Amino acid sequence: MTLSSSLPAQPSAPASAEPAAWAGQWPRHALRIASVAICLLLWQWASQHRVNLGLVTFQNVPAPQEVLAAAWALAQSPKLLSHLSASLARVFSGFAVAAAAGILLGMLIGRLRWLSDVLLPPLELLRPIPAVAWIPLAILMFPSSEISMIYITFIGALFPILLNTIHGVEGIDPRLIASARSLGSGRGAVFTQVILPAAAPSIVTGLSIGMGTAWFCLVTAEMIAGQFGIGYYTWASYTIQNYADIVVGMMFIGILGMGSSAAIRQIGHLLMPWYLLQR
């Protein structure tokens, strides 16, 4: 007998609950859209009037319409697909390896104290090192510049996933594990029916943050030897002082990072119905 079979079945939500929930979310969505619109208006005002606050100046910051024109020019360029495909391949390759390594190591470190004593100190020593500091070593370690760039995004995504997984496993109530064992569950059943479901919310949070940091490290990664990629496009625009294109590259990275992180959270919610019922 397993722990899940002894729990009462949760009643399913009525069919009308989902539209009602969406209707209740509209004020929040409207507020979010309004906040973005206000930021754009403030940006337009500051760049149009060349605001100079001493510490912060908008004298050389392009206006939103200039950025929009540059974005439209990039959208019509045949290089856009090459930039996007290169960046997506690097980010998702590094993220996939980081997710596998981070979740596996996090599970083991969270459950085995001796492994935590062995692995966690060197990992904590490496964690504060910024991605840009890894560039010389990445060039020396890997013969391929493409693998070096993937490694930089891997480093950026690894530690949020690892630490959130560890915290999720360590935060499990020991009584849940003891109850499962008292009901006759073996190690495999305890892992799949207790440990993994209980740690899943923290793991999903780590995956979402890790995806964001992978995009954060993209410019650093593509500084190595990139010839295509949104990060390379942003850096190349900076070197030739094309300010509008710099902002376009930043916006692409922000939109892609936000969208991929939101997709991970949504997939996590679909895979964790028990977590939504508890909220």
Give your account of this protein's structure.
Pfam families: BPD_transp_1. The chain is an all-alpha fold. It has one domain: MetI-like (MetI-like fold). It is 78% helix and 0% strand. It has 13 helices and no strands. The longest helix is centred in the middle third of the chain and has 33 residues, at 79-111. The radius of gyration is 23 Å and the shape is globular. Mean pLDDT is 85; it is low at 1-18.
Strand and helix layout:
Blueprint: H1 3-6, H2 17-48, H3 64-76, H4 79-111, H5 113-126, H6 135-141, H7 145-170, H8 174-182, H9 187-216, H10 218-222, H11 230-239, H12 243-271, H13 273-278
Helix pairs in contact: 3-12, 4-5, 4-7, 4-9, 4-11, 6-7, 7-9, 8-9, 9-12, 11-12
- The sequence of SSEs as H and E is HHHHHHHHHHHHH
Give the helix level as a range of percent.
Answer: over 70%
Our count of helices gives: 13
Categorize the overall geometry: globular
Terminal Cα span: 28 Å
User: Beta-sheet strand percentage?
Assistant: under 5%
Compute the CA-based radius of gyration: 23 Å
Largest sheet data: none
Q: Return the domain count.
A: 1
CATH superfamily: MetI-like
CATH class: Mainly Alpha
Number of strands: 0
CATH architecture: Orthogonal Bundle
Membrane topology: Multi-pass membrane protein
Pfam families: BPD_transp_1
Domain ABC transmembrane type-1: 84-264
Keywords: Cell membrane, Membrane, Transmembrane, Transmembrane helix, Transport
Short description:
With 279 residues, this protein is mainly α. It contains 13 helices and no strands.
